[in-house]
TrEMBL record:
Belongs to the HAD-like hydrolase superfamily. Cof family. The keyword Transmembrane does not apply. Keywords: Hydrolase, Magnesium, Metal-binding. It comes from the Bacteria. This is Hydrolase. It comes from Caballeronia grimmiae.
Length: 275
């Protein structure tokens, strides 16, 4: 009935410190040792997620940049969707982002996280992987090979940016929130759910047998694709409203995913949990 697991990271698999706890890591390793495929589906950069996967100690498919990149176990790059370079060059301009300059702009290239200013407070999200940004004048970037544009700022400022995106680009972009202060932009044919379907076809597994976990608006398509979706108790209220029939489980800071997986897959070994 349950043949594969797909899970988001922040707010879902990771704890409140954006790290893996030992109980969760042990649970996933147990399932991987039984031959259950693991798929990590996140808005994070591939290099960042590869570091988390290595710490986790399992072979996993990595869906990153909200579905713009997919890597197979062994780091084979198997799927890619880039923003049009001309779009990227516009997306970093102040009249699109906001002339006030309060919004931090990031570009996710294949092997780099590019940012328009120093923001050391963001590095707390990447403690497990050690992934770091490179500061540059993004208006000088040619726009080539960019999977995602990420805006970080206050919700009111991001709402203004989102309105600019809608007015200028319409349906040519996929725009979503991963957190209230994180607005993410990919090309229109990108989503976690589409990338999940690609991986499931490669594995020859019916989506009806997929267990999936998420907590925010960029997880909508992921949860709608999987036959057995679960939403975190700490999920974004807008996600709860959007998907009212998806069952809610424990919180990310109480290893809710691990506890649910132990029930579904009947894992009975003794290990201390965060509760």
């Amino acid at each position: 009935m349950y043949s594969v697991i797909a899970t988001d990271l922040d707010g879902t698999l990771l704890n409140s410190d954006h790290q893996l706890d030992p109980f969760t890591a042990h649970t996933l390793r147990t399932l991987a040792s039984r031959g259950v495929p693991i798929i990590i589906a996140t808005g994070r950069h591939y290099r960042d997620v590869a570091g988390i996967r290595d710490l986790l100690g399992v072979d996993a498919y990595l869906i990153t940049s909200n579905g713009a990149r997919v890597h197979a176990p062994g780091d084979e790059h198997i799927y890619s969707r880039d923003l049009a370079p001309a779009f990227v060059r516009r997306l970093v301009q102040p009249d699109v982002v906001g002339e006030h300059g309060r919004v931090i702009v990031n570009l996710f290239a294949d092997d780099a996280w590019l940012i328009d200013r120093h923001a050391p407070e963001l590095l707390v999200f990447h403690q497990d992987s050690g992934f770091k940004y490179e500061v540059m004048d993004l208006c000088e970037h040619d726009g080539e090979n960019i999977a995602k544009v990420l805006y970080i700022g206050e919700p009111a400022d991001l709402a203004y940016t989102a309105e600019n995106l809608k007015r200028e680009f319409g349906d040519s972009l996929y725009v979503t929130y991963s957190l209230p202060d994180c607005l993410e932009v990919m090309t229109s044919d990108v989503s976690k759910g589409r990338a999940l379907r690609y991986v499931l076809e490669r594995l020859d597994i019916d989506p009806a047998h997929c267990v999936a976990f998420g907590d925010n608006m960029n997880d909508i398509d992921l949860l709608e694709t999987a036959g057995h979706p679960f939403m975190m108790n700490n999920a974004n209220p807008d996600l709860i409203t959007r998907l009212p029939n998806v069952p809610r489980i424990g919180n990310n800071f109480e290893a809710g995913v691990a506890h649910q997986l132990r029930k579904l897959f009947d894992i009975r070994d003794e290990i201390a949990s965060p509760r």
